[in-house]
Amino acid sequence: MFIRKAFYWWLFPSAVVLPVWLLIGWAAFHQGSGWTFLGLLVLCPILFVALLAIGGIVMARRSVRETRAVSWYDTGLLAGWSASIVAFGFFPPGATGWLAVLGVLFFLAMFWVGLWELVTETRERMSVTFAAYQQAAQPQQVPRPSSPVVDDADVIIIEEHRED
């Protein structure tokens, strides 16, 4: 549970930390042209929005908000995605291409798995809600007494007549 809670708290800070890490990693480890830096200036805002979108999809689930922990699927995919971004930030020679592809694949997997979990959980909650409304809408069956009720009370009838 501790790991799932840690990734819950990592969702939104990662949207800032990981793009900044790419810029720091470029400055520290990359020996090359400024074209890579220009590419990073385009990539970092896109990565920021992607991380925020994934965080929003994950946080939209009620179970995540109540337990303050992401699911194990989310944990595995977020760990892989974060690791691929961190590894990309070291700019290893000859490996940046496949690390970029790996990061995109992790994003797509995280997006679709997160959306699937959100829809599944929402569908289950809605079916429970509709079942409760259906139960409440059913007319209540009043038990009939086993013996007939005899009412010997006096009845007073008052007739009113108006004269126009």
From TrEMBL:
Stretches that traverse the bilayer: 7-29, 35-60, 72-91, 97-119
Keywords on record: Membrane, Transmembrane, Transmembrane helix
Protein name as it appears in the record: Uncharacterized protein
Protein species of origin: Leifsonia shinshuensis
